[in-house]
C-alpha cells in the first residue's frame, strides 16, 4: 500500500490496496461485467425485508468462505439503515468453559439454503426481488467448517457460526443442535460484543469475515438506500486457499 500526499498541508491518495481475489455471491451476483459486486438496494416504496437483514457472516456456506468484505454507501436514508457488527472473538473469549469444550475441534454444517430455498420468506416479502436468485444447487449443499476458527493472521480464536447459515453441529441432528446453536447465536450478538455503524453517503466500511458477523437494520421504510458490496479472499485458512480447491 502506498500513500501519496496531495498537498503540503493535508490529504493523501492511497493506492496499491490489494484486498485479494473477489468472491461472487451465488444468490446475488452483480451485473455481467462485475458479477462479484452485489448491488444492495431498497426503494422508498418497498416494505420488504432487506438484503443482509439477519445476523450472518458473508458466504460462510462456500467451500472457501471469503476473509473480508467491503461495503460502500451510494445513497442513505435520513435516519436508520445502520449496520451492526459483532465480534466472534469477544464471544469466544467470554464463552462458558463447558461450551468451549463442546465446540473446540468440532465442525459445523453451513448451508446457503435458508437464504436460497429452505426457509426463504414468501417472494413478496423478499428483498431485491429480481436481482437475487434462489435454489442454486451448489450453494444449497452443506459444507463443514470449524466451529472455532483460529484467525490466519492474528492467531486469535473466534466462533465461526451464524444463524443464517449454520445448520447443525457435526455429530448431532438439526433438532439436537438447535438449542445449543440458539444459545450461541444469542451470546455472539450480545450488545457487549457488538457495534453499530451509522452510514453517511460515500462511506466505505471494510470488515473481517473470520472475526465478525453483521446485520443490516431494516428501519427506514419510505426512504431509499443503495449500497455496493464485494467480498474477497486474502489470508484464508490453508484448507480454504484457492489452490487447495
Ligand atoms: C450485507 O453485507 O449483509 C449488507 C449490509 C448492509 O446493507 O448494511
Structural notes for this entry:
With 245 residues, the protein is of the alpha+beta class. The chain has a single domain (51-222), classed as Double-stranded beta-helix. It is 13% helix and 29% strand. The chain has four helices and 15 strands. The protein has helices at residues 88-93, 97-103, 113-116, 174-188, and strands at 2-5, 12-15, 21-23, 38-42, 68-75, 83-87, 107-110, 143-146, 148-150, 157-159, 166-169, 194-197, 204-208, 212-216, 225-233. The strands form five sheets. Strands 3, 4, 5, 13 and 15 form a five-stranded antiparallel sheet that branches. It has a three-stranded antiparallel sheet with strand order 12-6-14. The protein has a three-stranded antiparallel sheet with strand order 8-7-11. A hairpin with a 6-residue loop joins strand 1 and strand 2 (12-15). The longest helix has 15 residues, at 174-188. Succinic acid is lined by residues 40, 51-52, 71, 83, 214, 216, 227, 229. Residues 40, 51-52, 71, 83, 214, 216, 227, 229 line the site of succinic acid (SIN).
Map the helices and strands.
Layout: E1 2-5, E2 12-15, E3 21-23, E4 38-42, E5 68-75, E6 83-87, H1 88-93, H2 97-103, E7 107-110, H3 113-116, E8 143-146, E9 148-150, E10 157-159, E11 166-169, H4 174-188, E12 194-197, E13 204-208, E14 212-216, E15 225-233
Antiparallel strand pairs: 1-2, 3-15, 4-15, 5-13, 5-15, 6-12, 6-14, 7-8, 7-11, 9-10
